[in-house]
Amino acid sequence: MRFDGTKDYVATGDLTVAVNAAITLERPLLVKGEPGTGKTELARQIAKALGLPLLEWSVKSTTRAQQGLYEYDAVSRLRDSQLGDARVGDVANYIRKGKLWEAFEAEEKVVLLIDEIDKADIEFPNDLLQELDRMEFYVYETGETIRARRRPIVIITSNNEKELPDAFLRRCFFHYIRFPDIETMQEIVDVHFPGVKKSLVHAALTQFYELRETPGLKKKPSTSEALDWLRLLMAEDMTAADLKGDTAEALPKLHGALLKNEQDVHLLERLMFMNRRRQGQ
């Protein structure tokens, strides 16, 4: 079982090595990187490439680790007991399975994505240590132990919003997705827009990387935003000539796809104003 990327996802050599190492070691793959660098999509493409089902658990600030295992709906059971419902006799009727339970009981191997683990409380990763390590957990309400029939491939993503506990990190294989260089970005563009004009792509990517290197930028545009921008440029039938000179003289065409806060817009406007003043002296 080996991952080598797909026709829809450009995986660098170090990324494929990390994925296959995690599969061989049977450890969760912890993937970090800037937002928009394809961390979530990686899990989907691994599942696609290996022909495995994908289970996605999107973590939020209110998510508890227990929800990934199961939840016991005591309120519904109490209500049903007051109504004389026969279902009350079997507590299993009030157990709601979480994504880990679904992955553990699956007949075939699955890919389990735990997406943006750093959004949750700091104790969230620690609360999953034993379950991810032993691939089993105990259901107190029914007295049963749920064990993984086939160990899932676990992909965990993080945007580095919080530091993760050392004990959790020790149990993972780690990979940081670096922001793609211009050559890799060209490959990504070719995958998404195979018929796009090369001159437009060259001009757009040149401007895109110049924008990312602007000192003081609060939020650098990501890979996904670059693709959105290119899609808009193509929809407007723009050419390389339409983009020429934007960086020095005006905000980039359709800059709303790249700049996502007013501070960065004002920063670029000030820099361009100062540049014009220098040129006029």
What does this 3D model show about the protein?
It is a single chain. The chain is α/β, with parallel strands linked by helices and 281 residues long. Helix content is 46%, strand content 14%. The chain has 14 helices and 9 strands. It has helices at 13-25, 39-50, 65-69, 74-82, 99-105, 123-127, 129-134, 166-170, 182-192, 198-212, 223-235, 240-243, 246-249, 262-280, and strands spanning 29-33, 54-58, 70-72, 95-97, 111-115, 136-139, 144-147, 153-158, 173-177. The strands form 3 sheets. A 5-stranded parallel beta sheet has the order 2-5-8-1-9, with helices on both faces. Helix 9 packs across helix 10 (198-212). It starts with 12 loop residues before the first helix and ends with a helix. 27% of the residues are buried. The model has no long low-confidence stretch (mean pLDDT 90).
